[in-house]
Amino acid sequence: LKNSNLDHRRYTMCHEIGHGFGLPHTDENPYNSNLGNCLDYTDDPDQNLHPGEVNFNKLRNMYLTNTERRVEKRYVRGNEEEEIEEERIIITRTLEYRG
Asked: 51: which of 55, 79, 82, 84 fits an S-S bond (Cβ 3.0–4.6 Å)?
């Protein structure tokens, strides 16, 4: 990596840190479409510099023990009200690996 460009180094760092957390590859074919996450094998690292939602979901399933889903109301664009479903992580004890 010493002679690689910045994007390649950033991609590789993200990729290897992901493996350190136990994440698998999201795809192992570097010649198909980019999936937009750093656990995707790619020939275009600048398109895959960060973890994607699929990676964060996998981490949640691996390490968090309790989750709660709720619907929250908030005001958007003036007085219009919109319901937004979001996932809120509730940690009630020390994180544990559930492999």
From this structure: 55
